[in-house]
């Protein structure tokens, strides 16, 4: 079951009884599902039907003599895309420091689908409301740092809050991200806090958020290096283990530039993709932070008891009407455990009604269990077929990448040989000092690895002077986020943009060459960037160009000095992937030569546009 959400926090012992506080929060949370949720009892272990498609399982352990208390609530919901489980755990153990801990996990057991893995929709993961409610109720901490339910305002005149933010950024024991943003000049601090609260709602419990006013930005800027700035109107995500003294570490902490964020806001209103983009690295960090070893041992114990609870309910046919509680524990023994520490099974009412009725119940239970096992076998078989298809697609992709790696290695070998040969010639000419001089540092920035980084480079305007971006809908670009192949797509898009920029530069440097982009890629001129020619599609099919709706999808905006109507058909495109599914494409229009603007226009970057097969 893939883990899709996790929050992990400690609570000071002087903050009160954590188990009692959590029980009250969980009760309020489940009560929103109706009377069946309100009847869940957290004082003992039990299994409850909340509806025909949802269940709640409670595991409770208490040992007053040793001061131990364990509570776990597991809710299961059957949805079209799979079985979603929210697992909330509370541990009070004097031997752990601090003595009170809570964590909430969310997992998804995906439903089998007929589509290929690449075609399957991404799961839309939102933190459980129980996490927000619990963080509002208790003084949760990430290590020694506060973990609030929503972003906090930091004003420059408040020394304590400025120190809290800087300490949180530098904290070596921090496990989750810190997200800090500077308030834009045209928005009030309170208004920007509300806007960022909405954007960070996808990250509740997985990060600590801070909204800075102008004075706070200035003060924090004097306490952190320039490479870790918090931009006005932008966002900085500080991942754990910040090394302020190591400049190479600064690039590890994502920065959403004000120019990128400006494309997604109107005043203090922010578009939804910002929250999705910010939550990506925040979630990756939270999921990568495994439980500490002592808590992992408790987690394994509670997981085993939850499984026992579920199996006992299934095997005894205990699933009754929706909302009817099915508790474990004999008469007068609710919540108590046997000598092995296990919760005793509930006595079924039918056990006292005679052997015949008991046999009927037993047979019904066996039939239900058999049917569930058949469904599980069917689901697992479908999953195996799914994984087999994905394996074949990955093998084809691996072969393609291996070919590119071999080509790159050969180019590297040739470049190293050429460098050695040139140094030898220089030495033969008697220029020994020049021959021993190391090459200067490559002035080019490292390539971007995320969609956010790519958009920052595009909107920067300095890295690609011969390109002009006319992409109208940035949502098509942001659709490439949160995919396991995001880094591959971004890398190939960047390589394509560098090649197009150098192609325009080559045409400017060699006005009489007459080389088209396809020929340019085949000739690979020295000193100019290229990409494998097989990634280029110079034209669309006749079918696409002659079908009105399909052709309209390829009409993209350009300046009026290029085309008075403001739009031209862009058929030439670069393939960023060969797999089915999103399979991104980059469409461009070269306007080069005498009497032109000498630019290449980029009109589209996003998922594969409709063609004959998908029309």
Short synopsis of the structure:
The chain is an alpha+beta fold and 615 residues long.
Q: What's the structural blueprint in terms of helices and strands?
A:
Layout: E1 3-11, H1 18-31, H2 35-38, E2 46-51, E3 54-63, E4 68-79, E5 82-92, E6 100-110, H3 129-137, E7 141-142, E8 145-146, E9 152-154, H4 159-170, E10 177-182, H5 189-199, E11 207-212, H6 214-223, E12 235-238, H7 247-250, E13 255-256, H8 258-262, E14 265-266, E15 269-270, H9 272-288, H10 293-315, E16 325-327, H11 355-428, H12 432-436, H13 451-460, E17 467-469, H14 475-478, H15 486-509, H16 517-523, E18 536-537, H17 542-546, H18 548-552, E19 555-557, E20 567-569, E21 573-575, E22 585-591, E23 599-606
Parallel strand pairs: 9-11, 10-11, 17-23
Antiparallel strand pairs: 1-6, 2-3, 2-16, 3-4, 4-5, 5-6, 7-8, 10-12, 12-13, 14-15, 18-21, 19-20, 21-22, 22-23
Description:
- The chain has 615 residues and is α+β, with helices and mostly antiparallel strands.
- 40% of the residues lie in helices and 20% in strands.
- It has 18 helices and 23 strands.
- The strands form six sheets. Strands 1-6-5-4-3-2-16 form a seven-stranded antiparallel β-sheet, with helices on both faces. The chain has a five-stranded mixed β-sheet with strand order 9-11-10-12-13, with helices on both faces. Strands 17-23-22-21-18 form a five-stranded mixed β-sheet.
- Helix 1 (18-31) packs antiparallel against helix 3.
- The model is unreliable at 318-353 (pLDDT under 50).
